Amino acid sequence: MNTKKFSEAMGEIDDKYVEEAIRYRATKKAKGLSSKWIKRGAIAACLCVALVAGVLFKTSAPDVVIAPGFLTVTAYAASSDEEITMQEGIELPTDYKWSLAMSSRPGLPLKLSATEYDDLSFEVSVDGGTLLLWEGNKITYLGSSFNTGNDTTVYWTNLSQTGENDFERYMGTTAYINIVIHEEENIVGYAVVEISTNDLENEPAQTYSIKLLKSISFPKVNGEYQKITAEYVAAEMEQIKSETQAGQR
């Protein structure tokens, strides 16, 4: 315990108890109290302070059981229909990089699916860039957060639509796609995908690569859903991003 925490812990003890202890010790000392009992009293006082400090500075964390994620994130090659299932922490081959100036697709495609689960929904958000849907010849620009069903392909692009014919280019080197998995009203997993570029100055032909940083599931415990909050998941995803950024410095 450092000096500051010790001082704060001592401040939680009522002054009257301190005064009584001083008077008690003085009285006993006057009566010839043995050093053995004085030492015992000092030990008890230290234990009291330690107990108070332990209560004050104890940090609480959710009692969460986690398991490897069951979400399948499929990426597609830039110039063909070849596909690959992304593995956590593994860089994809060069063929799976995307560039707005060189690809026939309007964005970097990702298919989100969990084939063994029928009633899942995905809450998808993005930090940097924009997500869109491409169905037939129609492109739909999505908000910063949206919900979609199982087996959906979304596209990430560095262009954001600011008007009917106006667009703004995202000029960051890194973006993230956050995926929270719901089963009915329960959160049952999440995943974080990183999108990055090393040639930002090569506008408008920047090339973007993609990596699955983390995929986590929250299995049932004793047949019951765990009580996972959105705040807990958001904090965990932010920690993953922070640790990744720190490792890249």
Percent strand equals: 25-35%
Query: How many whole angstroms does the radius of gyration measure?
Result: 28 Å
Count structural domains.
2
* Share of helical residues: 25-40%
How many strands, what sense, and barrel or not for the largest sheet?
7 strands, antiparallel
Helix and strand topology:
Blueprint (H helix, E strand, L loop, with lengths): L2 H9 L3 H16 L4 H23 L9 E2 L3 E5 L6 E3 L12 E2 L8 E6 L6 E8 L2 E6 L2 E4 L3 E5 L2 E6 L1 E3 L5 E3 L4 E10 L2 E12 L9 E11 L12 H19 L1
Antiparallel strand pairs: 1-15, 2-3, 2-5, 4-15, 5-10, 6-9, 6-13, 7-8, 7-10, 11-12, 13-14, 14-15
Helix pairs in contact: 1-3
Descriptive report:
- Helix content is 27%, strand content 35%.
- The protein has helices at 3-11, 15-30, 35-57, 230-248; strands at residues 67-68, 72-76, 83-85, 98-99, 108-113, 120-127, 130-135, 138-141, 145-149, 152-157, 159-161, 167-169, 174-183, 186-197, 207-217.
- The protein contains four helices and 15 strands.
- Mean pLDDT is 80; it is low at 1-14, 24-39 and 42-61.
- It folds into two domains: 3-57, no CATH class; 67-248, no CATH class.
- A hairpin with a 2-residue loop joins strand 13 and strand 14.
- The strands form three sheets. Strands 1, 4, 6, 9, 13, 14 and 15 form a seven-stranded antiparallel sheet that branches. A six-stranded antiparallel sheet has the order 3-2-5-10-7-8, with no helix packed on it. A two-stranded antiparallel sheet has the order 11-12.
- It is α+β, with helices and mostly antiparallel strands and 249 residues long.
